[in-house]
Design a protein that fits this description.
- 52% of the residues lie in helices and 8% in strands.
- The chain is of the alpha+beta class and 455 residues long.
- The protein has two domains: 9-322, no CATH class; 347-434, no CATH class.
- A hairpin with a 5-residue loop joins strand 5 and strand 6 (423-426).
- The chain starts with a helix and ends in a 29-residue tail after the last strand.
């Protein structure tokens, strides 16, 4: 076993797959950021709100006012530099830090694919993705390498395998497979699609897409690893993500997943793609064919890189299972739900009416959430206990600053999950200020009184 591992770590492959991955990743990130800016979402999401929901431990990460535009500009320029392979390590570091800062500014905007971009950019930071077909390699022959360690390419494949497979495991639950929820709720909104709209709106389609989606996620990474099934599997990737893009408003994510999946194709395929691209752009492709192998500057750096990547991938295997540390139904409490590749598994709606009690004077009044939150923020807050708790503390600070003494904050909240009847998420008599936000279980969450079987 040890001998086989040592042999594998000493194996080299063409650097072309890393170069193609770097170029496509950088370009798609640049397009995504431009799209975000052009749609006015910077102002809508990060300038207009008066209050922002924070991730626990990252309360210090806040929008920067009008300088938020500068933050997006820096992230965009870093993405272009990554695509070009110009000062790659620095550019990748700037992109990782700026994009992750953007992601952390308001928990309201959490999406699985934002998290995916953050961890993917962290992984790319440790890989020699600018070894060939990059400005760095073109300007300095000493930094030009045609071959890289095989594990630097396989690390990306392993991460994508985890993302796909865990998304499939998450779909193995009774709501998704036995009730076709929440697709049974969402798909009818596509009834106006020409020719197939009426069928997509049917219950049969909901079950077919539910089972097909689970099977796709569980099998597709392994079909991509196998050279004999790779091409039909990639065709399935294209069809699946194009279909999801048509049915659901999920932005650039389908195109990103199609592009990054190309890493599974052979070295020869990537070399041909780079050669044809260089011919079209009239780039000196032959300058990169030097047969040189990339080597780390020292054995210590190599060991550090291997250790970081190994720990990183191990964490990606473990983090999605942290939900087992919490009691209660995961879909109801959402404790351990984020960062676990649970994609589009539930439809939640609800309301949260807050009551402020001045315990010194006995006065009480209700809060109009629209005075403090945008409609999008209120929608997210109303169904998630950690949002409700953070908002309650914010309200207490706000009204204390207006002269109210010894404040207590109560909430009347009801939530509908995957078509069930609405249930109270938090009891009306719970003073939320008695609890602080943390990673601990929130005992004030009401029991679900139902069971969703599965992972």
């Amino acid at each position: 076993m040890q001998r086989a591992l040592k042999k594998y770590l000493a194996t080299y492959r063409e650097a072309a797959p890393l170069a193609v991955f770097r170029i496509l990743f950088g370009l798609l990130m640049a397009v995504s950021l431009l799209r975000f800016w052009s749609n006015g979402w910077i102002e809508k999401l990060y300038l207009e709100p008066n209050f922002f929901f924070s991730y626990y431990g990252f309360e210090w990460v806040k929008p920067l006012g009008t300088a938020t535009y500068l933050l997006f500009a820096v992230c965009f320029l870093a993405a272009i530099a990554v695509a070009l392979g110009w000062r790659y390590r620095l550019s990748m570091l700037v992109f990782f830090l700026s994009f992750t800062y953007i992601e952390l500014m308001d928990k309201t905007t959490y999406l699985n694919h934002y998290y995916f971009i953050s961890i993917l950019s962290f992984l790319l930071l440790w890989l020699p993705a600018a070894a060939t077909f990059s400005v760095d390699a073109w300007r300095s022959p000493a930094r030009r390498f045609q071959r890289v360690p095989a594990w630097t390419i396989d690390a990306l494949k392993v991460l994508l395998t985890i993302v796909y497979f865990y998304a499939g495991l998450a779909k193995l639950n009774s709501d998704w497979l036995l009730e076709a929820m929440p697709l049974k709720i969402w798909l009818p909104s596509n009834f106006d699609i020409p020719l197939i709209g009426s069928w997509i709106a049917s219950e049969t389609a909901a079950y077919l897409f539910s089972w097909g989606g689970a099977l796709y996620d569980l099998s597709i990474p392994f079909l991509l690893w196998n050279s004999r099934t790779r091409l039909p599997a990639f065709i399935a990737v294209i069809l699946f993500h194009v279909l999801t893009r048509v049915l659901f408003p999920i932005g650039m994510f389908p195109y990103i997943m199609i592009a990054v999946t190309l890493i599974f194709f052979s070295e020869a395929w990537h070399r041909k793609l780079l050669k044809r691209s260089s011919q079209l752009l009239k780039l000196p492709a032959k300058d990169f064919d030097n047969r040189r192998q990339f080597n780390f500057k020292s054995l210590r750096i190599r060991r550090l890189t291997l250790s970081v990547i190994a720990v990183f991938l191990m964490l990606q295997l473990l983090i999605p299972f942290r939900y087992v540390l919490y009691p209660g139904e995961l879909f109801w409490t959402e404790e351990g739900y984020r960062f676990s590749w649970r994609v589009m598994l539930m439809e939640k709606a609800g309301y949260a009416q807050f009551k402020i009690v001045d315990q010194s004077s006995g006065k009480r009044f209700y809060v109009d959430n629209r005075d403090f939150l945008t409609a999008f923020q209120e929608k997210q807050m109303s169904t998630q206990a950690d949002f409700i708790l953070e908002y309650a503390h914010y309200l207490a600070n706000h009204f204390s600053s207006q002269g109210h003494k010894n404040i207590a904050v109560f909430v009347d909240s009801h939530v509908v999950l995957n078509g069930r009847h609405g249930k109270p998420l938090i009891a009306k008599d719970v003073n939320l200020l008695e609890y602080e936000n943390s990673f601990k279980h929130k005992p004030f969450i009401q029991p679900f009184h139902d069971t969703i079987q599965g992972f």
